[in-house]
Design a protein that fits this description.
Blueprint: E1 3-6, E2 15-22, E3 25-30, H1 43-46, E4 62-63, E5 66-67, H2 70-88, E6 93-97, H3 103-117, E7 122-124, H4 131-141, H5 151-155, E8 158-162, H6 166-169, H7 171-181, E9 186-190, H8 196-199, E10 203-205, H9 212-225, H10 231-237, E11 238-239, H11 254-261, H12 265-276, E12 281-285, H13 287-290, H14 295-308, E13 318-321, H15 328-334, H16 349-359, H17 372-380, E14 386-390, H18 394-397, H19 401-410, E15 413-418, E16 431-434, E17 443-446, E18 451-455, H20 468-478, H21 490-502, H22 521-525, E19 530-531, E20 549-550, E21 568-573, E22 599-602, H23 604-610, E23 617-622, E24 625-633, E25 641-645, E26 678-685, E27 689-695, E28 706-712, E29 715-722, E30 737-743, E31 748-755, E32 758-766, H24 775-779, E33 805-807, E34 812-813, H25 814-824, H26 829-836, H27 846-853
Parallel strand pairs: 6-7, 6-14, 8-9, 8-12, 9-10, 11-20, 12-13, 14-15, 15-16, 21-25, 22-24
Antiparallel strand pairs: 1-2, 2-3, 4-5, 4-16, 17-18, 18-19, 21-26, 22-25, 23-24, 23-26, 27-29, 27-32, 28-29, 30-31, 31-32, 33-34
Helix pairs in contact: 2-20, 3-15, 3-20, 3-21, 4-14, 9-11, 9-12, 9-14, 17-19
């Protein structure tokens, strides 16, 4: 039976129709009735069906390396937390949770920590991606309210994307943007990198990292001088601090800003003129703004412009923070951040008393707790002695991740609730608790435009796996608070959450869910997507004591210059078809094809100067650590700057450990780490040989210089490179009939292992020769018999190489697309889609298709 649920990935919040087809299989389609996506899905959502199996699942509670019963594991967790609190106080324990949790899970965890344990030491990995937006909203609006809907994109005449590679990171929203641009709206992209989003923009401003405050302050000064301020709106609805306009007098003229931001003055003027002349403007921002040491100031610089020009609370006019995780917003609503209490309340004494009364809480936290970076620093310093990590992998994702690992290794008690048995973080766990996975979870999530949707289970819980809310509630009951956590189902928690949102809420807080607390279980099960506060701030009122929004005076801080030892600037981010640390997307063979290895992107001038070859290996180092990458030489990078992805772990590669590189420094207001501008250096790394290993069954990560795991149908591929004798790789080959070919002159060895006439493994290594394309060899894993040309690496006769995958939704390669364009003389992206389907599903590959249509050597005109 088809089940309507919600996607497991980004904050767009797409609706999904999942139809089970077997015990652990399902077909996935977009929900045509869901307001967020209207039936469309990106490549990740499209291939969710490949990720619902039990490979690598944690299926039973584990104490150390031994399987345990739930009673034994839960009793141990409760006892160790209770004893730690008794001996060292409530601040000696902490929870680190995740935007992967459902709202009901989040609510129970927050209630336990802040109302019953009596500490606010619960923070979330959402701190790493959107807490600067939260802090900026609080300073400007008095409440963390995103003042925009996706429908504003449909009404905007100008859309400005700041620090957001939307085509890759939020493809469904980007297709909505493209649809509006196709009917006349203009698109401006502000991003140091020339991403595929920037390629389709009317104007791309490759701003110098860390200078967004100058850019936006200059825009505000321009709007003032051009007469584009909405004086009536300011007078009625905005509080402007003394001296605000005077601080714009120096350093924010066009020429000064162009110099600060390292932009052509003509391009900057074009943006300023376009913005000033276009009242219906949406400015959408994401990690490039938030993940900065001045992230909150950057958010407020954007919001200031919208407040001063009256571009808020109106159709097609808003500053719009778009979140990265599926339920980052739900976590914000229930107080999942250490700096908020619950239901959009802070730690003001009257709020503490109000929530304490509602919960009948015996030990209310009275002040904010430790934010993520400080939390793990406290673990390392021994101030936090017991930590519970839920649905996240901080040993990979936190900045200066090696220090986080050292902290966890020394922590007296570490609990990890997760879906996956072995992660980089769970290696440090004293207790591992098997949590329900996406297809097994039941509850609600809130997306970037404040739409609350039901997530519904369509697969049974495997093994001993349990929902997170149940696990947390059971520990709370065992710690002595049985009646306060006596939930039987998610609907019980939902109703309590709704009651708290309206409890003694006289309208001072816009977040409220009136009427929903009365929903019965059947109504909860049948809940349709709905948005709270349909048109925020349309009435001109804000959640401040006087009802007026706040302009916040922010100044551009000096951007640190490069140092001799660290002459480059490192930026980290996401790939189109991968998600966080790949515990889910890494299971999908189709999603692995777009970017199979972690690449460091480097400008050609830097590559030439440093002797780095495209496709060679390079080591990126920072004062915190270093990691190895495959080099991609590309003019899309600014000279002097590097980009690396965040997804690879020790489980999937010997390199690509990007979390080791950023500094553990944070924005002073939000506590969000600055991942976007770390001092760094890069150097070429030589290898004696390269190769690949194809295996049907899982094998340990090869012990060599470079090994990257790629999921393929029926097995796994490891990309390999190294120094010394490659013969030690033979130990990775399974038992079976062995056939081998050696070319001593080129240092080439090709080995295949057959079992019952079928391919079980293949190892191809060369020092000086070439390696064949892998597609045909990988396909042999599924064949009932082995072809005679196996060691040649190709089928008998002529084989067509389809090239790197461009369209992951339909598994279409570069060479296939180029051949189709040439043979059919295609001239636009729509024609490619009509011919072979590429770009017709999620559309995230459409910028790449458009680039293939450009004459060789041409560039996009800004």
């Amino acid at each position: 039976m088809a089940v309507k649920t919600t996607c497991a990935y980004c904050g767009v919040g797409c609706g999904i129709v999942a139809t089970p087809t077997g015990p652990r299989t399902a077909t996935i389609a977009g929900d045509p009735d869901h307001p967020a996506n209207g039936g469309r899905l990106c490549s990740k959502g499209t291939h969710l069906g490949e990720t619902v199996g039990l490979d690598g699942r944690l299926l039973h509670p584990m104490i150390g390396r031994k399987q345990a019963t739930w009673d034994k594991a839960l009793d141990l967790v409760a006892k160790r937390f209770r004893d730690t609190i008794a001996q060292h106080g409530p601040d000696s324990v902490a929870f680190y949770v995740s935007g992967q949790l459902l709202t009901e899970d989040y609510y129970v965890a927050n209630k336990l920590m802040k109302g019953f344990i009596g500490s606010a030491n619960i923070d979330t990995n959402s701190r790493l991606c959107m807490s600067s937006a939260v802090a900026g909203h609080l300073r400007a609006f008095g409440e963390d309210v995103v003042p925009a809907n996706y429908s504003d994109l449909d009404a905007a005449d100008l859309i400005v994307l700041v620090g957001s590679n939307t085509a890759w990171c939020h493809p469904i929203v980007y297709q909505r943007i493209r649809a509006r641009c196709d009917t006349g709206a203009k698109l401006v992209v502000i991003d140091p990198r020339r991403t595929e989003t920037a390629d389709e923009a009317d104007l791309h401003l490759p701003v110098k990292p860390g200078t967004d405050v100058a850019l936006m302050n200059g825009l505000l000064a321009w709007c003032r001088d051009a007469g584009a301020l909405d004086e009536a709106y300011i007078d009625s609805h905005v509080a402007v601090p003394d001296g605000f306009w005077e601080q714009l007098a120096e350093g924010y003229d066009l020429w000064s800003v162009a110099k600060t931001c390292d932009l052509p003055a003509a391009d900057l003027r074009r943006f300023y003129e376009l913005f000033a002349a276009t009242p219906r403007t949406v400015t959408m921002f994401s990690q490039g703004i938030n993940q900065s040491l001045t992230g909150t100031d950057q958010v407020n610089a954007i919001v200031n412009v919208h407040l001063a020009t009256g571009r808020i609370g109106k159709p097609g006019a808003a500053p719009f923070s778009i979140t990265g995780q599926p339920n980052a917003m739900g976590g914000r609503e229930v107080g999942g951040l250490a700096t908020t209490l619950a239901a959009h309340m802070d730690f003001a004494p009257d709020n503490v008393a109000r929530v304490g009364r509602f919960w009948a809480a015996p030990h209310m936290a009275t002040a904010p707790g430790l934010k993520a970076v400080d939390l793990f620093r406290a673990v390392g310093e021994g101030r936090v002695k017991a930590v519970w990590i839920m649905a996240t992998n901080p040993a990979v994702s936190m900045p200066d991740a090696d220090r986080v690992r050292a902290a966890l290794a020394d922590c007296p008690f570490v609990v990890v609730s997760d879906v996956i048995a072995d992660t980089d973080t769970s290696a440090y766990a004293h207790v591992r608790l098997p949590a329900a996975a996406w297809g097994e979870k039941d509850g609600t999530v809130t997306n970037s435009e404040r739409v609350i949707s039901r997530q519904r289970a369509f697969l049974p819980l495997p093994g001993d796996a349990k929902p997170d809310w149940w696990i947390i509630s059971q520990v709370a009951q065992r710690m002595g608070w049985r009646s306060a956590f006596a939930y039987d189902r998610p609907a019980d928690i939902w109703r309590e959450h709704c009651r708290l949102s309206t409890y003694q809420n006289d309208g001072a807080r816009r977040f409220a869910l009136p009427g929903h607390a009365a929903r019965g279980n059947a109504e909860y099960d049948a809940m349709q997507p709905f948005r709270w506060d349909e048109t925020p701030f349309a009435d001109g009122g804000f959640s401040t004591p006087d009802g007026r929004a706040r302009m916040v005076a922010v100044a551009q801080k000096p951007v640190a210059g490069t140092l001799d030892a660290w002459p480059m600037t490192l930026n980290t981010g996401r790939y189109r078809d991968q998600w966080h640390t790949m515990t889910r997307t890494g299971l999908s063979p189709k999603l692995a094809r777009h970017r199979e290895e972690p690449l460091v992107e480097v400008h050609p001038d830097d590559a030439t100067r440093l002797g780095i070859a495209d496709g060679g290996l390079a080591r990126v180092a920072t004062p915190q650590g270093d990691s190895l990458y495959r080099a991609q030489v590309t003019p899309t990078q600014r000279p002097g700057e590097l980009f690396v992805p965040i997804h690879w772990t020790d489980r999937t590669a010997t390199g690509g450990r990007s979390g080791r590189l950023p500094r553990p420094l944070t924005d002073p207001v939000s506590g969000q780490p600055g991942f976007k501008a770390t001092p760094a250096r890069i150097a070429a790394v030589a290898s004696d040989w390269r190769g690949f290993l194809i295996v049907r069954d899982e094998t340990p990560r090869p012990d060599c210089q470079w090994a990257t795991r790629v999921a393929v149908p029926c097995g796994t591929v490891w990309d390999l490179a190294g120094n010394g004798d490659a013969a030690k790789l033979d130990a990775l080959l399974p038992r079976g009939e062995r056939i081998e070919a050696i070319d001593a002159a080129r240092g080439t060895r090709r080995i295949a292992i057959l079992r019952d006439g079928r391919l079980a493994a293949a190892l191809f290594v060369t020092r000086d020769g070439s390696l064949p394309p892998r597609d045909w060899l990988v396909a042999q894993l599924a064949e009932a018999s082995t072809a005679p040309t196996l060691l040649a690496g190709r089928a008998p006769g002529v084989q067509v190489d389809r090239g790197p995958i461009v369209c992951a939704c339909f598994d279409i390669g570069l060479n296939t697309i180029l051949t189709t364009i040439a043979d059919q003389r295609l001239t636009d992206v729509a024609a490619i889609g009509k011919a072979i389907g590429a770009g017709t599903n999620c559309g995230s590959c459409r910028p790449a298709l458009a680039k293939l249509l450009q004459p060789k050597g041409s560039t996009h005109a800004a």
